[in-house]
Amino acid sequence: MDPSRKRRTRLIVALSAALLLAGALVYTSFSAATEAKEPSDVLASADAGKSYEVTGKVVNGSVKREGDDLRFAIRDREGTAQIPVAYSGTVPDPFREGREVVVTGKVENGTIAAERDSLVTKCPSKFTEEKKKS
Amino acid sequence: MPGIGSALLVVAFGAAIYCAIASVYGARTNRRQWVVSGRRAIYCVAGLVVASMVLLEIAYLRSDFQFALVAQNSSTDTPTFYKLTAVWSSQAGSLLLWVTLLALFSSAVLFATRHRHREIAPYAAAVLGGVAAFFLFLMLFYASPFDALSPVPVEGNGLNPLLRHPAMMIHPPMLYSGYVGFSIPFAFAIGALITRRTDASWIRSTRRFALIAWTFLGVGVLLGALWSYSELGWGGYWAWDAVENAALLPWLTGTAFIHSIQIQEKRGMLKVWNVSLIVATFLLALLGTFLVRSGILDSIHAFGASTLGKPFLAFIAIAAVGSIGLVVARLPYLRSDARLDSFLSREAFFLANNLVLVGLAFVVFWGTFFPLISEAVTGREQSVGPPWFDRYTVPLALVLVLLTGIGPALTWRRSSPSSLKRTFAIPLAAVVLGALVLIAFTPAEDSVLSLVMFVLAVFTLTVAGQELWRGAGARRVTSDDGFVLSFVNVVRRNRRRYGGYLVHVGIAILFVGVAASSAFVSKTDARLSPGQSTEVGGYKVTYERATAAVGDDASGTGAPIALGAVLNVERGGKEFTVRPQRNYFPSQDVAQDGAIGRFFEGEATSEVDVRWGPIRDFWLAVQPDIRALDKPIAEANRRFTDSSGDIQALVIAAIADVYRREAPPATFRTLVSPLVIWIWLGGGISVLGALLALWPGAGTSRARSIAAARVGRELSRA
Amino acid sequence: MTPEAAFAAVLVALLVAAILARPILRGGEVDVREDEELASLETAKESKYREIRDAELDHRIGKLTEEDWRRTDRELRAQAVEILERMDKLGGDRAAEGR
Q: Is some CB atom of chain B closer than 8 A to the CB atom of A32?
């Protein structure tokens, strides 16, 4: 094979490998992604059995422990729509009433049954910002 | 006082802009004195920002709450170490740190190249001055570190308790040194493109800076992981969180860069690729700074609210369009001088490693920005979790470690099959032997991917060991060095080579730690009352009693209240005691939490008790249930709201003592994680390797080589 | 901005301006940089020498066969000679200009 044709073949092989990877990335990310919602979205329309990632503020005075479970309610960032959450697993350090959290789980009987250890609070380096705003 | 800080920044801003203009003017009109003046402007910027940094540090040390920043994230009772490092926990302070490091790095490189690069250096100075001007502009108009407070408060908020961890305070300067360091080769690459000097000389002058930046960035990432493991109470070190990914991205492309520049240096190939890589690395470093500070990935809506969002994005866009346009315009000057001779050559494997690293970077980039991409495409914000990342990164990491092993064993240009047999015979035998031993004596076969990773690491280590062994042997043949001295001397005389091998060894070890600890970790969450036990990974853990300390925190974070536990741990007849605790920091919200309650309702952080070990770590965190204290707290809020501080302190101590005596059930997370310590030990080995490669060699002094060249020339003329 | 801060700003600005103006006012050729071309050849030469030494070590370790090494070494040395010739030419030109 002459060198220029060899180079072209190599380029085609490399490009198709790259395209294949890119295609796989696009396909799997869209199919495996959990949808991010706010409590009001979940209340309005939630398919049973589908997993959602719900972001909201922990409602003041809603945090209770029941045995190993943690129960609390989250509300929209701006608004009053709220939904209770049943959660088990470790609670991250910054978890507080009034703070923004994300839980992942399915909706059962109007409650978010959160996956174990799925509770995430926002990154600490941004708290200073919050304080300034409030 | 804060006004003087602002004044320094204003002058620094002017000097940075002057630097850019004077350097370009001097270079275009060939008025050298303007170039010198422009270079001096960078030194001035460095002096000014260092002075303002010192001013701010002094304000922190003196708890001078005239400075809004000091009041915001320090307080009189913040420990001194954290007062000093609290500067970069805020947005404005971290911008100041960025520009300080940038000015210092820029001064260093411009001073080092003051006699070289007559053409490139002025443009590089202009680029660096421009970047510094942008960050100074942000501080002057968007997030000033020198806002003044009036009236001056008596006490500040204190440093965010979660950040009170040594690793977390060293982490930002490391990370920023990495980000900033990559702007040096970037600036010289731009200079080289503008002046059409696209040979490898810009690479040779900035290679060290790229390696230094790479080292700092890697250390920064690893310190972040260490903080996550030992301070956050969840027990992991990596979660594919956007902020972590933001730091990893430039590291990946930077790793590709420090490999591929060697190909250009030696063979004159990959010129377009190298300038593209450094442009990408610089842009990703900017993006990393921006991501952490803007909150854009939390939600596209948060973006508008962020103060830095728009100017930052505009700057990144300008830098991207400008650099890409420049690369395209200079394509005719970026042709390769040579062709790949053989697939069995080091350059071919470097190329493969570059593709894998860039592929990894692309995967991480896509996953990190997926929420934005998906919102743009489908209108719904979606995100991908760690399993999605793992699906791609695990196989790519395996290939990477394989290449880490093969690369050093090959020679530049070509390796003939007969020498390959000689090179790979022992490593392959070690691989087979290692696999058999692992399968026979360890549970490694339960996770095929981990087993593959272990075996690949064995391969990499054997290759590196064999290289060193044979190098020393060859040294003994040609010199009269003894056995030990031959090793020392062969390494000493080939620092870059053996430094590189050592980095590879460290990386392979790091990956062993990652594979073992993610595949074979045992984890339990248990809610225990005193006297109850739980089992995890062969350890029997018994909750003995609760502890409570007021005003006496052993870990030096300055927390007023610490509730903890004493547990007895037993394994195979050996016993030890662990004392995890949780530190409570007061909230400032008296109205909502109550005068006494605020001491329990503020931030809380875990002091995890980690027993590090070479084979496995025992990791235990406690989550006390302070709801059990609700009743006494409510009563104390009622009765002691108006009492003096001393009485309140006594009341708090009494409530904490209730916790100790009555010991309500607490939640314990226990992890038994094998080989996890090797992640950081491997990282440390890599840093040593990088230092070895960076260490200036003897006899390469510039002045001497110039003199020698002159002697050579004159002798030939005579 | 308070008066004392404004005063400080002016003072610092004047100092900086003096530092920056000095090389320009002094005028003339204050920059003693080498020729870019020569400097880049100089570094190219150094790294070529390093390559030659590297290949030699690879050969002694046994990674490069005798035949491969001879070929590589020949190529590298030819390149080094080429660099040296270009340097001599440039150096000669420069010396001639200087006279």
A: yes
